[in-house]
Amino acid sequence: LPAGGASLRLCSARVAQEGINKPVIDRIIRVDHAGEYGANRIYAGQMAVLGRSSVGPIIQQMWNQEKDHLKKFSELMVAYRVRPTVLLPFWNVAGFVLGAGSALLGRKGAMACTVAVEESISEHYNNQIRTLIEEDPEKYKELLQVIKQFRDDEQEHHDIGLEHDAEATPAYSVLKTAIQLGCKAAIFLSERI
């Protein structure tokens, strides 16, 4: 032991846990990791169906951003010592099915799915931003920056979906509502399980 009896700590990518609201941070990182994982699976499903179509490069561009988001939340899970949701295997299948299923409706269907999901996620990220600001904006500065940037990316995806005729999908409002109800359920469950 060094002089004064203090213990040595090895340097790591972990964040100091002192003073953070661990239950809040765990819930935020767990659900955001699950959400980005699900988004990756949705875009994988869309690419499986529409990858060689005219909208394929647009879907790929959005998917690439989602891959970056997932990578960052995977890093944050390690840094904050957060366990993933036990529902990842379910989100793996459900996300791909939602992506492929919406893409089977055509490019407009895929874009309607994108609008519905990204609108839900943007709203979810805004709620998290408010929570972290109420907690302590300085203490959670890095996490706030990440969430704000990802929220902006998700909003951009939402807008791309609208620009590519999402609202022209048959029964658009019904499809959008159903997908958003699924998103709300996924968020609720992934925060807790």
Please explain how this structure is put together.
The chain has helices spanning 22-50, 56-79, 88-104, 107-135, 141-163, 172-192. By secondary structure, it is mainly alpha-helical. The chain has a single domain, classed as Up-down Bundle (Ferritin), CATH 1.20.1260. It is elongated, with a radius of gyration of 19 Å. The chain starts with 21 loop residues before the first helix and ends with a helix. Keywords: Iron, Membrane, Metal-binding, Monooxygenase, Oxidoreductase, Ubiquinone biosynthesis. This is COQ7 protein. One of its GO terms (biological process) is determination of adult lifespan.
CATH uppermost class: Mainly Alpha
The first-to-last residue Cα distance is 40 Å
Number of strands: 0
Low-pLDDT runs of 5+ residues are 1-12
Strand content: under 5%
Q: Counting H and I runs of at least 4 residues, what is the number of helices?
A: 6
Major sheet characteristics: none
Rg on CA atoms, Å = 19 Å
Domain module count: 1
Choose one word for the global shape.
Answer: elongated
CATH architectural name: Up-down Bundle
Helicity, as a percent range: over 70%
